[in-house]
Amino acid sequence: MARFTSFDGTQLAYREVGGGAPLVVLAGGPGRASEYLETLGGLEGSRRLVVLDNRGTGESGEPADRVTYRRDLLVRDVEMLRRHLGLAVVDVLGHSAGAGIAMGYAADFPDRVGKLVLLAPALRSVGLSPERGDWDAFLAARAGEPWFESATAALRRTGEGDVSVENRVAVSPLLYARWDERARAHARAELGQWNCEAARGYNAEGAFVPGVLRRALVEFGHPVLVYACSEDPISPVRRCRELAELFSDVTVFVHEGVGHYPWVEDPDTVARQVEAFLRG
Prior knowledge:
The structure is a single chain. By secondary structure, the chain is α/β, with parallel strands linked by helices. It is built from eleven helices and eight strands. It has helices at residues 71-85, 97-108, 132-140, 148-159, 165-171, 181-188, 196-202, 210-218, 237-244, 262-265, 267-279; strands at 2-5, 11-17, 22-26, 48-52, 90-95, 113-119, 224-229, 250-255. It has an eight-stranded mixed sheet with strand order 1-2-4-3-5-6-7-8, with helices on both faces. The two termini are 30 Å apart.
């Protein structure tokens, strides 16, 4: 892992893999070490992936001021990484909560972004989180699964305030289209990858001002890929299409038959679609 010093003195880590034009990759969770992203289905075959461990996760240090875990402040770490890399402009990919950071970066530093990829994006930062009807339809379609009762019980515990990593993993079957051994292994890995304090800080008071961010994104004129997954309850396709309406230069791709971690279930499609967008 390489390291750099961010705006407040916190030492942050990132890994580089592959060759070609750089792509800065921002992890979600929030609060999960970036290793869960793997190589995004083999995208390192065409891109130099620069994968940041957000502060307090993975190999990155914990900040002295816990306020800096906040979503809107994590944007500053991305800018410090760009400067450290010596790049005038960077392409940026954010997955899930990482897409919230990526959108914040595009809003605050629009001239520093070439192309923007929002992969299975969490949507709270722009006020488009899934509604009750989205969840009801999603859960009804899975009611016959053998894991359904235990997963939905864990989901209820989340709503009641259980933020333990064990409970997060218990919810995980809902986030994959196929709960096979590959998915189970990917989900179990979170037990050693998650920082609860970083997750709480990401969502702290003041982190989300959807109206302000939406207005800024309307002015963002660079190419954007909104990558939606048909079996993803966190980023419903209909809400991703609403997100796309904010941008003036946008491509929407709907990956059928996969959940919130599409590279786990169909890696070739992820690598092919993202590279096609970045190359186009």
